[in-house]
């Protein structure tokens, strides 16, 4: 099929892009990499009257490292993030990137576009939620910032107003003593995940801060603190990595099962997703813990 007719504008400033979008009164759509929107248009699942192409907007193609944050602008392609040395300061982002579709998709698709699109099975919204990233939003009234954990409000639904544009996502740089884990199960590489997990563990003296974010398991990324479960396993002496994953599988059984609230579909039942998620969560939390430990050991050497 072909897309229904639409008008096309390509503004060169963010204020012009916002003005163009606001002028459509809800009948316009931003287009960035086009990797999700183009199929939607071709299948006529959406019929926007105007496309606002933001790829010529000055300043949105920046990756900026400042104040403990890596800020990724709205037209930065996923493939660039995969290779840019600055982005290695956000290890979870780098770990997730190869799982996003295929290299050809990542060559066009943007990080901010993936966040704005808010597919519940997408990797980058989960990463943003797990590391507590901030979503920077430009609108007619100026700029505002929303925590990723509050930005996703449902399947393909966000806190974005119809006249607002995501101008950047701000990912906190990993602190010393932080470790991460990321994995998913999909039917084929490049498919959206049946279930996936991002894990972050921060060790600081006696303090343990552990977080899991699941994706493909609900209508949005689901984040839960799991410090108590991790501490219980560590105190019981289960820090040898193979055993730790087994012990965590038991310790996480309630929380992991609660996080999976999607209905079953043609690809996987709810019960299967629960089992997948629990196993992935235990393995990746264990890896994150051991990476955090070795990070501390390196700092102390
Ligand atoms: C074959 C295939 C496989 C894929 N596999 C995966 C996968 O495994 N995991 C995954 O996460 N994604 C996958 N994708 C999607 C891909 O990652 C997209 O690039 C991404 O979801 C959207 O980014 P984009 O820049 O292409 O956005 P676009 O397609 O341009 O836009 C997507 C939506 O977001 C809105 N939007 C985009 N940018 C902004 C902005 N700055 N402000 C406000 N709204 C905005 C658009 O209006 C539109 O509604 C796949 C795509 C294809 C075609």
Automatic annotation (TrEMBL):
Keyword annotations from UniProtKB, A to Z: FAD, Flavoprotein, Oxidoreductase
Regions crossing the membrane: none
Domain FAD-binding PCMH-type: 1-176
Source taxon at top rank: Bacteria
SMART domains for this protein: CO_deh_flav_C
Pfam families in UniProt: CO_deh_flav_C, FAD_binding_5
Name of this chain's protein: FAD binding domain-containing protein
